[in-house]
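Query form — protein Branched-chain amino acid ABC transporter permease

QUESTION: What is the three-dimensional structure of this chain?
INPUT:
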Amino acid sequence: MYIEEYLDVFISGLTNGSVYALMAVGLTLVYGVSRAFNFAYGSFYSLGGYFAWVLMVYLGLSGGYLMVLLMAVPFLIGFGYVTEKVIVAPLRKRSDWEVKVMMITLGLALFLDNGYQVLFGPRMKSLPPIMTGAVELGPIYIANQDIMIFVLAISGILAFRWLLNNTRIGMAVRAVAQNPIGAKIVGIPKNRIFAATFGISTVMVGLGGILLAQKYFISPMGGWDILVKSWVITAFGGMGSIRGGLLAAFILGMLEAYVGYVFGMTWVLFALFGVLLATLAIRPQGLMGKWG
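ANSWER: The structure tokens for Branched-chain amino acid ABC transporter permease are given below.
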């Protein structure tokens, strides 16, 4: 009996960890390219959830999650791109612009969260499961919903990896992240790359919001919990390290599942920060980060 319960918790941790990995990679991407932290990242998570809720529940759009995801990708890319151009890009010409970006994205987060409350009300929203039923493996039942969430999250990560390694914009992103001055010298439009990475990261966290909204509720202030977890994963894996972020996401996803099961959900953030502090005390650059 206990083995079955712990396997169920393992599956839950693996599912959540895959979505956390998708979202943490987006936050790591923005930091790795621009060296600035986006405090509105959690609000973009809520944006994805509310976008899907409007289409599926409020408007009753036919086509299911496939249609929602096809519509969400260009919407989220456009939202992130325009946000960077209008709000973040003008600050880059000023001194200490990284700190100013943190402050203005914090203001954007508060603006968006209050906007969600005005438009959708304080009550929590939920999305229907992407798939019902379960797969039976002996004494273990794995919900088809968890399988699809895992598959879609991993597909998003693989698509991102393909984008970085096999497209011109992906190679430009890597060049700017490795050497911004050298990238500018060889003619790479650094400002466009900054905006593009902002748009890509918005897609990744927004899709995470759509996937997790099936298991959890959407609320106006729900993005702050995701922001904290994404920051912990990014710091734990190593600031700017995508591989480190992936590894940290699955480790902390498992830790969250087992701590929540054994001690209760109120202890989850305590455990996450405890692991983060212990890791940074031993290895300040994170699991796979480098000194810079």
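ADDITIONAL NOTE: The mean pLDDT is 86.
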